[in-house]
Amino acid sequence: MCFFSLVLTSGLLVCQEKTPSENFWNSLQTLCGNAYEGTLVLPKEEDSFSGKTLIMHVRSCTDTVIKIPFFVGDDKSRTWVLTKNTDRITLKHDHRHEDGSPDTITMYGGTTTNSGQDTIQVFPADPETQNMIPAASGNIWWITLDKTHFTYNLRRLGTERVFKVVFDLSKTTEQPAPPWGWKE
To answer: Which of 12, 37, 75, 183 is the one with CA 20 to 30 A from 96?
Structure first.
């Protein structure tokens, strides 16, 4: 029995299993339109994040692009942009000023090097990021996703830099206003 997708190949109907990246993408798509509150786990103290309400809003979804604004208190400058290309996913960080103009450091990130797992995708820094932010050439971002949690992680290899925020998917929160630079 086929639980995934059927593909017509040479006149034959063939069961084709979805890749882990497709399963991850489809799970992420189920969150579309919802907002969730998060908790800073690492580092324990981060001046720009500690004590502030952290909200992710899975605000915009198409078959190939998912945009997730990440609000830190009143700061609406960050949006995670995930793009699906065949069995690879790209993560970019769109940073904006309050007037909506792009920050000088924006659209950095990376693309998965394989199809990952159903519950985790890993994004090593790409050449564009290495050129834009030389210190970030050792960055590895990863997102884990299961039925109850979405976790955004960053590790800068060769340094003590680590960042982890966990969002509780068991309950939604009020949808925030658009992030800086969004036109509705």
So the answer is: 37
